[in-house]
Structures are given as C-alpha cells and as structure tokens.
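Late entry, written up from scratch paper. The run itself happened at the end of the previous shift, but nothing got recorded in the book at the time, so transcribing now.
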Amino acid sequence: MQDFSERLVTWYLEKKRDLPWRNTKNPYKIWLSEIILQQTRVAQGLPYYYKFIENFPTVHTLANAEEQEVLRLWQGLGYYSRARNLHAAAKYVVDELDGKFPENYTELKKLKGVGDYTAAAIASFAFGEKVAVVDGNVYRVLARLFGIDVDINSTKGKKNFNELANELIPSQNPDMHNQAMMEFGALQCTPANPDCMFCPFTTECDARLTQRQNILPVKIKKVKQKKRYFNYFVINDGDKYYLKERKSGDIWQGLYDFPLIVTDKPLEPQEFILKYFKVHVEDPSLISISKEYKHILTHQIIYSKFFIIDQTIIKNINLFLTKNSVKLYTIKKIKALPKPVLINKYLKEHIF
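Output as recorded:
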C-alpha cells in the first residue's frame, strides 16, 4: 500500500474528533494528555485534562503543587503512580531543565513515567519528529491490515510492530500520520465490530479477507486477578473520623482510607471482632456492618466491608491510634483529601 499514509490521513481529516490536545504544539499539554490517557479512555480522561489545565496551566504550577493536591485531582482515574510520576517529572523539568521540555524522543524518555509510547507521542505531536507512536489501537490496525498473528505482548511482537509502524510513517507530517493511526483504531478499526464496510482499506485488509477480525491482534498473556478482602473499620468522634495515609508497598500510595485488616478470604463479623477488637471493644454488639463493595483493578479484585464503630466503646483509644497511625479529620478536610474511589463511594453514600 504505497499510498497508505495518504489514505489514512484523508480518512482522519474527515472523521477525527476535536480534542483539545490536538490543537496545540505545547509539549506540556500534550504530555499531560498522554499521561492521563494511559490506561484511560478519552471520554473518561477529557474532564481530568480540563481540570488539570485549569488548576495547573503550566509545568511550573504543577511542579510547585503539593502532591496531595495532585492526587486529589487525579482521584478516580486509578493507576496513581501515573500522578506521582507526573508530579516528579514536572519538578525535574522545572528544577533541572529550567522549565523547558526535552525536544526529542531520546531525551523525553528520561522523564519519569515516560516510556517509548509517550516519548514518541510528545516528540511527534509537539516537535514533528519522525517516530511512530505505537499503542493498542495501532497494534490492532497493523495486525488486521497486514495479517500479523504474532503475540503483541511478546518481545518479538513488539519489535515487529514497531519496525512496521516506523516503515509506514512518512517524513512529511509524521504527527498527523500518528494521530490518524491512533484515531483509526479508536473509531474505525475498533476491538469489537469494526466498520469494515466503510473502511478505506477494505479491499486490502488481511483480517477482513480471511474473516479474522475477532482473532487479530493476538494477545496471549492474560492478567491473573487476585482476590483480596479489605475489612475497614469506621470510627468517629462526633463529626470527625479516623483516617490514615496509605504508604508505599501496596496500591493507592499517598491516598487516604480508614484503618483496615486485609485478608485473602471473607471475614465473618464475629471473627473480625474476635481477631481485631477483643482487647479494645467493650461491647462488640454495638458494631454495625455495611454492605459489600466490589472494586475491580487490573491485577486484583477487592471486596470490602465497613465496620462502623463509635470510639466511646474502644477501651484504649491511644493504643488504637498508635497501632494504626490514624488521625482525626473533619468532614470538610476529608472531602479535600485524595481518596480511593472505593472509599469515596462509601463516604458519599453514608457520611457526606
């Protein structure tokens, strides 16, 4: 397909969505959009992009922000390491590079949280570098058009797809070609029910000719999800509640939740009371229990219950505070703290 890029860009100019990061060459805004859109659909990420631009219009304002505020604005997007890396990279650009973003693929990869894909996107979209952007959409388009049945998660597959993508990219307007490839996968060559009838490559596409649209691309490696049970205890002192900041070594680092005990199987109420509160609670019958909340992450499924306890029935509150590293927060302060979606959902249903 000698005119592949030309036909692709023609489709793009007619069908593309009007997205704010496509109307700028500002590397900060492009970088911000790409970090937000990692593991996130455009429809979900768009409000977050506007929110970040409103609160942090420049890399300097982002670098000077408190991490807690960055995490709070990120709340609900998940994969919170992206937000921490975003903040760290902004500080690096401001402190080490005088606020000026690197202008090529190789240097961009040195920023924290910026891998091959993100570096290629910024280099191409902001600086016009001829380097292919290869994301899930591009894998799918190339696999189907050229009939490539190599596992996209394998080392060989990643190498093959990257080489092919870089062979296809033109020297002129490589940024538009990359945008077109990604948009084509998002709107036309979709994961399910691709619009083959009105595809500009319908007569050449290997997947359509061999009826393999539902087979390609090949992705063999499956993510195994671990089940975890989060047993939270909600303890109040009037209109204040005890929360703690989650530390490193587990999910949701830097976010706030209630004290908890984590188990690998469901914990019955009486077992919970006996295991955790027998020396602290004067009257276990005063504990009430919420419904079960299910929260799905990439590598784990979390089942949570909230055990509601009045602090007056805890014999040694100081021992409890020391053991669990918790602090009292007003409802106003809790609303301002960055929290996991699971916790925020419970709070909105029962406390806010």
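The longest helix spans residues 81-96.
(Scratch paper discarded after transcription.)
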